[in-house]
Amino acid sequence: MSSLREDYLRDGFAYARGLLPLADLDAATAEMNEVVAQQSRRLGLSVVPGSGVEALYENMRALHAASTPAYLASLTLWAKLYSVHRLVMNADLADVARALGVGIPVFQTQPVLHVVSDLLRIPNGYQGFDVHQDWTALQSGLDTMGVWIPFMDVDRDTFTMDVLPRSHLRGLCPGAQGKHVFVVSQDCYREEEFVPVELHRGDVFLMAIFTIHRSSARGRPGALRIACSARYENAAEPTFVDRQYPYTQKRIVDRTVLTPGFPTVEQVRSAYAAKRA
Ligand SMILES: O=C(O)CCC(=O)C(=O)O
User: Fold this and answer.
1) Which domains does the chain have, with CATH numbers?
2) Is the pLDDT of residue 270 over 80?
3) Taking a C-beta distance cutoff of 8 angstroms, is the pair 216, 128 a contact?
4) With bands split at pLDDT 50, 70 and 90, how would you rate the model's confidence at 1?
């Protein structure tokens, strides 16, 4: 643990190798696949059997081709799955966070899923992030730690995340608000400083909130990279306490009726009857 801590404090990132049980990654992948498959069946598409990444990728491609809204709704739901939260909340990972200085871990944001593949492009949609620091999206504890969890092995030709060693100590860099992130000004880094983050399934990449990073566009044709990121904020960080626990991401509850006429009494009753059958 001491070398992990040293790496993290010095470089602004560290690799926790083999930290997550592969069974938990399998369970999350299977549920993500089922979320997609349910939409495919609803639309009358055929579903490739299996619960691993290969079946998932085929089912994603079929749904992506058939319905962008159903595809995007499925990916949005992934971040809310218990099985995905369980990865982020893993007890060993929380211990690592505490050992790296996140004294009272707190989560003001949901996990975020990152899907990159040249076969799953959405016009004007997400295909990775430009050069940024995560700080502006949270602005809570100065020692907030990001975690980045890949669902498959990621090598330098699988759309890595690229990081800039020791850049956390540059503090908050100037930049401009982009569509998805606050893009760091090009004066603040040199292209050749970036290193790709290469990981195996089960590894977790730990990253300081000020570390400069980006998504790499470098990938083999047809390659798929899925990763989940989350932020361990520190409720005990002194400037966070002094600023009275601020948060940037607000919860909005839409109280309009989303599906007029739904549900009927019969629909409610049959939902419970189905569980008895
Ligand atoms: O997964 C990626 O490509 C980007 C992730 C990222 O930039 C982040 O989590 O802040």
Assistant:
1) 2-20+90-249 (2.60.120.620)
2) yes
3) yes
4) confident
